[in-house]
Amino acid sequence: MCNLWYSINKIFWEAVYILISLEECRTYEYQKVKEAVLKTFENLGGVEKYIKKGDKVLLKTNLVMRKKPEEAATTHPFVVQAIAEVLVNYGAEVQIGDSPGGPFSEMLLKSIYKYTGMADAAEKSGASLNIDTTSSKVKNPNGVKLKSLTITNMVLKADKVISVGKLKSHSMTRMTGAAKNMYGAVPGTTKAEYHFNCQDGESFANCLIDICSYVNPVLSFLDAVTGMEGNGPTAGTPRDIGLIMASDNPFELDLAAAKIINAQPKEIPLLKCAIERGICPKSTDEIKIIGCDINKFTIKDFKVPENHGIHFIGGNPPKFLENFVKLHMYPRPVFTQRCVGCGICAESCPAKIITIKNKKAHADLKKCIRCYCCQELCPQKAVNIEKPVILKILSKL
């Protein structure tokens, strides 16, 4: 009788609300992860609701750079393996892939797959790894910021895309979750172009929304067993959260993720813009959460980077004030003694304002667009994002 009532209740909520699944998972012990993934599919209506036998499914992971799983910067390989294994056993043809930061090359991909544990995840689950680095230009008439896109062919060749992201803080966007994970559908060097053309938070948020909406993943997972707080998305601190999260709508999933890290939607540019565009509800009260009680997993002291500027004169200051505002009103990248002059930051900088002198990085902050790619892609964690003195004073007022 209880099972019958659960089924009737579940069907009702599926018809009325977007469903968010929260399953407790406190460890990366593989069997525990697999159980949580299986329960997640059950919560959301079963694999067959999203995938047909024989479908070519891309698991779009978050592999921002060469990081070991325990550093919490990339999707954990056991989460990917478990999802892939379920799909392969169901009869799907599964491929694991991403376009990390930096050049989109076969050599770099193979190195990152091995280092992050994705090569083992593919081998053990029966999935393949994407090494196709080609891309295509596509029209995006429904886009707000991007009416055309350059998208990797690994995405375009898939019948279905499933996002498998990582819940982390982010110095530019404050949080990276399900929707931002689709930025990896864009090939490496094109990401820098989009960053440069979308320099303010709102423009970049709409850019991310356009990309995610075009790719339209049928399902989005978030690895929130261990997330990252602080100086994310790569140089922060691992933080235990204890969840596998999933939904068929990445924006609603990110709304739930924001609640877990105790951040208001209006403080996260992507969610703020998604709400304004009418593709995301204003609060988690408007979504149905199955599984765990979200309130028991909300972390009150989760460290999220503050907004990166004080826009008391609007998003774009007058030209004569532009340099002053950039230098004194926006947090800025500061290169620490950890810098070894490897040049990755200079190669990845969309504005091309970083030079290497005497084996140290130097940036022309007057031309810095505050995308913080240098901090995100630094293998030495040598870039801090710091407030200028005036901003520190104004922030306390």
Q: What would you say about this model in short?
A:
The protein is of the alpha/beta class and 397 residues long.
Strand content: 15-25%
Shape type: globular
Question: Largest sheet, described in full?
Answer: 9 strands, mixed
Q: Mean pLDDT, as a whole number?
A: 89
Overall helicity: 25-40%
**Number of β-strand runs:** 15
Distance between the termini: 59 Å
Note the total helix count: 14
What is the H/E string? HEHEHEHHEEEHEEHHEEHHEHEHEEHEH
Please state the structural category. Answer: alpha/beta
Low-confidence residue ranges: 1-16, 308-315
Specify Rg, calculated over alpha carbons.
21 Å
Describe the structure.
By secondary structure, the chain is α/β, with parallel strands linked by helices. The chain is built from 14 helices and 15 strands. The strands form four sheets. Strands 1, 2, 3, 4, 7, 8, 9, 10 and 11 form a nine-stranded mixed sheet that branches. It has a two-stranded antiparallel ribbon with strand order 5-6. Strands 12-15 form a two-stranded antiparallel ribbon. A hairpin with a 7-residue loop joins strand 9 (219-229) and strand 10. The radius of gyration is 21 Å and the shape is globular. The protein starts with a helix and ends with a helix. The model is unreliable at 1-16 and 308-315 (pLDDT under 50).
